[in-house]
Amino acid sequence: MSTTKQLQRSLGLRLVIVVVIGNIIGSGVYKKVAPMADELHSSGWILLCWLLGGIITLFGALSNAEVAGLLADTGGEYSYYKKIYNRFFAFIFGWSLFTVIQTASISSLAYVFAQSLSSLIALPPLLPSLAEVNIGGIFYPFADFNVKCLAIVLILLLTWLNTRGIKTGANVSTGILILVFTGIFTIILFGISSSSAQLVQPFQISTTTGKAITMSSIFTAMLSAFWAYQGWAAIGYVGGEIKDANRMIPRGIAIGVLLIITIYLLVNATYLAVLSVPELEQIHRSGNQIAAVEAVRSFWGSKGAVFISGLILVTTLGCTNATILASCRTYFAMAREGLFFKPVAELNQVNTPANSLWYQGFWACLLVLSGSFDQLTDMIIFAVFIYYGATTLGVFILRKKMPDAHRPYRVWGYPVVPAIMIIFCALLVMNTFFNRPREAAIGLVLMLTGVPLYWWFTRQEVKKIEKTNA
Description:
It is found in: Membrane. One of its GO terms (molecular function) is L-amino acid transmembrane transporter activity. This is Amino acid permease. It is a multi-pass membrane protein. Keywords: Membrane, Transmembrane, Transmembrane helix. The protein is mainly α. The chain has one domain (13-469): Up-down Bundle (Amino acid/polyamine transporter I). Helix content is 72%, strand content 0%. The protein has 17 helices and no strands. α3 packs across α11 (277-286). It is globular and about 80 Å long.
């Protein structure tokens, strides 16, 4: 296909909000309360970390909304960083999305989908004799190979679906979100009204160990919360396909994030009302249980476990689809500027970057084989907060560079709100280095592989120009 074809602006505010929420609400709302319990040993502090994570996410979203309102275009932060910083930094961000942030998000979501399906339908074991084969004692590609193969099939199927056009993918997400919201509010309603619920339990600040909560524990626990909140910025990647993007993106981000914060506080308070902290700690240590499943099982029995497993299937399906839909647009934008593999710059017959979708899908499949769910999510959060901080810093830089530019939205609480976000991002990245050094190191190495590739891509562009001028 010719690279002169253009993306079509077809998304209004409703679908913008759907894409924002669809990229956020995934596996974290069901799984992450357990590792937070294992870290904090206090139900009150768990709920407080969910609230604090939501506030920090909202600060980042409001700061991002100002930048998006001013610079909205296909590629999201990739497009913003070229104007805020330089082409090299923009490329490293785009490469980080491809190697770590978005593709690992797709992988981990698909993995939870497959895990949930396997709890409903017994999957036959695949290559069990190779389960202990490993690379450096870190990667076990054949462990739970039946689950991983199912996750790979899901990624490839949804990738194909999204090659049919963005409105097709967005409308699929709309239908799925309706089911997800219905399911989650059903859990909240029946959970808090059940005989097993202890409504004061979520607000107990004391720890089960008797030890005081440390700042390091709070930051480490919030890695889990931030995975559940992760994804709101993905709407910027489809900026070139949104009607009146400079106004719609800020509004969609703010509405979507506020809805998610409310839902997360309600559903996690429900989990904490029906399950004690020691029970949640045991769920985490078991390695193969999901907190939401055990919470619903406590008041609905085995039928409830089937219900919640089905809801997790639908939710992770929707989030995987939304993440696949949005993420590939950045690589398309990079390829059009000669900073990614040339075929990725092409559109198919329905003006969709199909090659970008397939490149993304194949790498996500490889990441499925590389690690466990928690390993992937901690790696993502470490990487993504580097760029959340960079985007928020961009609010200050753009106010100085472009003081008179029209801003459809100005961040509330400037300069305090963006300053708090920047400081928090720096602290979280440093804390992850100390408390999750393996995940931080893997993420950093994958990001830095972009440095020699930037040189290679730019060298190819120079050769192309020289050949054209010869």
